[in-house]
Structure formats: C-alpha cells, structure tokens
Specification:
The complex is a heterodimer of chains A (about 90) and B (about 450). Helices cover about 35% and strands about 35% of the residues of chain A. In chain A, about 30% of the residues are buried. With about 90 residues, chain A is α+β, with helices and mostly antiparallel strands. Chain A has a single domain, classed as ACT domain (Alpha-Beta Plaits, 2-Layer Sandwich). In chain A, strand 2 and strand 3 form a beta hairpin. Chain B has two domains: about 160 residues, Anaerobic Ribonucleotide-triphosphate Reductase Large Chain (Alpha-Beta Barrel), CATH 3.20.70; about 230 residues, Anaerobic Ribonucleotide-triphosphate Reductase Large Chain (Alpha-Beta Barrel), CATH 3.20.70. In chain B, the strands form two sheets. In chain B, strands 1, 2, 3, 4, 5, 6, 7, 8, 9, 10, 11 and 14 form a twelve-stranded mixed sheet that branches. In chain B, helix 7 packs antiparallel against helix 8. Chain B is globular. Chain B starts with a helix and ends in a 9-residue tail after the last strand. The chains are: A alpha+beta (about 90), B alpha/beta (about 450). The interface between A and B is medium-sized, with 24 and 23 residues.
C-alpha cells in the first residue's frame, strides 16, 4: 500500500469531496479515510488514499489534482503519509 | 486512521513555523583523483563530482514534493583538498566551483586543511591560497582545523589564520568581505558535518555518503509558547519531544535520499540552525524561556538546557546521529541575535561564553574592519581553548568588515543574512601570538 494524504484548505464550499473523489476514481485511486476540520480559521479537508493501483505516478496524481484546487479556489496538496507516521509514531 | 491532531500539527510546523530540512549533503571521497599533475587532478575531480552528484539536486526536489517538506539546501562535501593537491591547489578550487555549478548545488565544502598538530607543505600552500580562492570562486567553502583535544593547539596555524582571514576580507571588500563568511577555523572539526562553511569528508568516511542536517528553531519556540511559566523540567521535556519529531523527519528524508541515490546513509545532524526569517531564531527560544534579551544573565544556562534537550530528544529518533549536533548561534543568520547585537545587549565576550555550552562557536560575527590579524588570532586561540578543554567542536567565523566600524551593518544576502559590526577589545595580544609553537594537549582527568 502506498498511502498519501490529500489536504484541501480554503473557504468552505459545496462539492469539495465530490470533485476530488470523482478525479480519484478516474485515476483508479482508492479512498481509505476522510476527515474535515478548521485549521487557523481555514476549512481543511483531509483524505487518506492508496496510490498503489493508480494509473500514473506520484507527480502525475499531484498535477491532476491541481486544477480541482484552482476551480474551487482552494489550496490542494498531495503528500506521502510516511512523514506523519515518522513524526508521530515511535 | 486519520489522527487529525497529528496531521495538523505537522502541517502547522511546516507551513507556519519554518520547519525544514536544512541540508542534504553528499560526501564524496576525492583521494583517488590525486595525481602528480595538478591539471589532471582538477579534471578528475570535476569528472568524479559531476558524475556522482548528477542526480542529487533533482532527487532532493522530488523528495521535497512527495513528502511536502522543504529541503532548503543540497550540498556537496569533499575530501580536504590539501590531501589531494600536489603543488598549487588553486586549479582544483576552480574545478570544484565549476562542478558545483554544473550539478546545481548551493555550496561545496572541503577546501580544507587539517593542521591541528602541524602543517604539511600542501596544507601551507592551501591556506596561503584561501584569500584568492574565496574571492575568485562563488560556491567553495573553506575550513582549517587548528586544534584538537588530542593534539593541543597549533599556535603557528592560529597566527597564520589571523592574516589569512584579514587578507580574505580585504580581497572581498567590495562584497562586504563576504569571503570570510565562507571560511571557518575549527578546533576538533568533525568528519561528517553536513553544514557549511565547515563541511568536508574526513579520512574515516566511506567513498560516498549522505548526511542530513535538520532545523526548526521556530517549532521549538512555538512549543515553548504553550507552556509559559512552567518549571524547567517541563521546558526540557517539551524541547525533547519537539526535537524527536523534527529529527524523525530528518531520518526519513536521509533514508529516502540514500535509497534513491544508492549512496549509504551517514548521519543526521541534530543542529538547530536559525535563518534570518521571522520566527526562525535560536535567540528567540532563549527569550521565550524568560530572558528579556539574549546576551543578558541567564543566557548561557538557557542555551545549555536547550542544547542538551535537543540532543536527548533527537538521539532516539535517528539510527545514527553525528556532525555538529547542537544549537547554532550565528549572529547574522538569526533575527534575535541581530537585534540583541545591534542594541548592545549581546557582546562578543558573552557569545564566547555561550560557545562553551553549544555548537559550534563564534559564528558569522562582523567585527570592525581595522581589527588587526593578531587580535583575530587571539580570538581564535581563546575559542580553540574552549574546544579542546571541553572535548567539543568550536569554531571561529568572523568577518572583518573592511572600511566599517562598530555600529555599521554588513549585508551578505540570502541565508547568510546581515549583521551589525560588533566592537572588539583593543587590548593587545601581539607578544602572545608572536610566540608560536604548540599549546600542549590538555589532561583529560582531574576535571575542574
């Protein structure tokens, strides 16, 4: 499993999860978990996904997600989960 | 599966508190490049570096993108050039500079001589060439080891380095004496330091090696802001926990870079390295502990606690810890230090005391342009004495700002920052430095 975190932050609006999830489906990426919260006054949606079966490499996925961020006027980031596991798990 | 708090904390550390990996430094052994013909040596050096480091910068950028953590510098360290130069070392310096530019790193360290006990002919030629090399190359960093706990202090080298620093300052006077910012004089230099200006690959290192330096003063300061007024037990514990998290990311990046480049992992350096950016200051951590300003009474104790707690937290987070591993206190690269020095609250003498309890020494300090060579040598000797007696690394990286006086400002730009010119004692040590010879290695028992 190649776990990665997608985070979307900015002003809350409709269709955030729907749009991201649709794009992920097109790239054959499975969603493992979803959570949302407020970070420094910003709405933040976090999604853990598995890139194992994806039809493209890491940077390809990151590039494909970028237009969704632009469309929603929100920041969208893709990063590998390893950094969170390393930092918070002994 | 999602622990929202953990993820948010990591994001906040990176986005708001300037947490970054300060450097991935690729060490390359240049001993096989040595030949009797210096031109041939220079060619071999260029070829070996451009081949070995071809993918370094690209790999660093890939890791940066995938993990979402900035990796500020990608650098190269090499075998001390005095060990491979037979004859004039300057052509090798130019080859190193070209190679560094070709592969896109931002500094290359190793224009180095190790002369803690004495100088070889090659060491002599190398140090005499330092002013020219610092003035005519862009990316080369130079270091000279003049003392060690096992060898004592080579006072001939100390005397000579006073002149070398002055000449370097004069040759680069049109750039605020920038050459001296790339030149450091060490006691107990380490062989696996990933930070500049002092990085080089010691003779005990492998053919190639990846060393990583972490940073994050802003993260530590922010953690301390949450525990205002608590006793030092809580302060130490908080710093340890924070250092652990920072270092774990360093370890992750080091492992990843090592596996992608197929180059062995060496060490993670646990240093807290400030930058001139707002909120990325070691001085402000000490002030957060309760000091009105860094430089006042309590400063040395606060720094000692910080330095020790960072190591305790970091050691468990990495397989191999090494390098300098301690808090850095470069004046020009730390907004809090700059402020304290400019307002006269932080003196050179207090900085010297601080170097007894932290990494690494009198660092990035601008001194008046008319400071003579023997005074600089006296400063080096004092700092080396602190190093060899305490069995730690100490260093001097001072910048005589030619044409400027105490109270003026020098500006180096970028990560090197800007600094107020600090006053230096005018009491003469001329006869002391003129003696030369060696200060014997210190006794390592009867420690008081």
């Amino acid at each position: 499993m190649k776990k990665a975190l997608i985070s979307v932050s900015g002003a809350d609006t409709t269709g955030i999860i729907a749009r991201v999830a649709t794009k992920l489906y097109e790239m054959n990426i499975n969603i493992l978990d979803i959570s949302q919260t407020i970070l420094s006054g910003c709405f933040t949606m976090m999604m853990v996904v598995d890139l194992e079966g994806a039809d493209r490499d890491f940077s390809g996925v990151a590039e494909a997600l970028q237009p969704i961020g632009d469309m929603l006027h929100m920041e969208i980031h893709l990063q590998r989960m390893d950094i969170f596991d390393a930092m918070h798990r002994i | 599966m999602i622990n929202t708090q953990d993820i948010l904390q990591t994001m906040q550390m990176i986005r708001e508190e300037h947490f970054d990996i300060r450097t991935i430094t690729l060490g390359i052994n240049l001993l096989p490049c040595a030949s009797e013909d210096v031109k041939r040596t220079a060619e071999r050096v260029y070829d070996k570096i451009t081949k070995t480091a071809e993918h370094l910068v690209r790999t660093g950028e890939d890791i940066e993108k995938e993990f979402g953590i900035p990796i500020v510098n990608k650098r190269i360290a090499v075998t001390p050039v005095s060990m491979i130069a037979q004859g004039d070392p300057v052509p090798i310096a130019f080859a190193l500079d070209r190679a560094a530019k070709q592969v896109g790193v931002n500094f290359l360290g190793g224009y180095t001589a190790l002369m803690q006990k004495g100088a070889t002919d090659s060491d002599e030629r190398l140090i005499q060439s330092i002013p020219q090399v610092m003035s005519e190359t862009d990316l080369i960093c130079s270091s000279v080891n003049i003392a060690s706990t096992r060898a004592g202090i080579n006072m001939n080298a100390v005397r000579e380095m006073g002149h070398i620093i002055r000449r370097t300052a004069e040759l680069t006077r049109d750039r605020d004496s920038l050459g001296c910012a790339k030149l450091v004089v060490f006691a107990n230099a380490v062989e696996d330091n990933p930070f500049m200006a002092g990085a080089f690959v010691g003779p005990g290192e492998p053919e190639t090696v990846i060393n990583v330096g972490v940073s994050g003063p802003g993260v530590v300061k922010n953690a301390l802001e949450q525990i205002k007024g608590e006793p030092f037990d809580v302060v130490a514990e908080t710093i340890k926990r924070t250092a652990f998290k920072i270092t774990r990311v360093g370890q992750l990046v080091a492992r990843e870079a090592s596996s992608r480049l197929n180059i062995p992992f060496g060490i993670v350096d646990l240093s807290l390295a400030p930058t001139p950016a707002r909120g990325d200051s070691v001085a402000q951590i000490l002030e957060e502990m309760g000091l009105e300003s860094v430089g006042g009474p309590g400063t040395t104790a606060a720094l000692a606690l910080l330095n020790d707690a960072v190591k305790k937290g970091g050691v468990m987070a990495s397989n191999h810890v090494g390098g300098l591993s301690g808090a850095f206190i470069p004046v020009s690269e730390d907004a809090g230090m700059i402020k304290a020095a400019a307002s006269g609250k932080l003196s050179l003498e207090k900085l010297e005391a601080m170097t007894a309890v932290c990494s690494v020494g009198l660092d990035m300090i601008a001194i008046p342009g008319d400071t003579d060579a023997v005074t600089i040598s006296g400063i080096i000797a004092d700092e080396a004495a602190i190093g060899i007696i305490n069995q730690k690394t100490t260093a001097v990286r001072v910048i005589p700002a030619i044409g400027k006086q105490a109270g003026d400002t020098v500006n180096f730009g970028g990560l090197l920052g800007h600094a107020p010119v600090m006053p230096v004692s005018r009491v003469s040590c001329e006869s002391f430095i003129a003696r030369g010879g060696r200060i014997p290695a210190p006794l390592n028992s009867l420690k008081n």
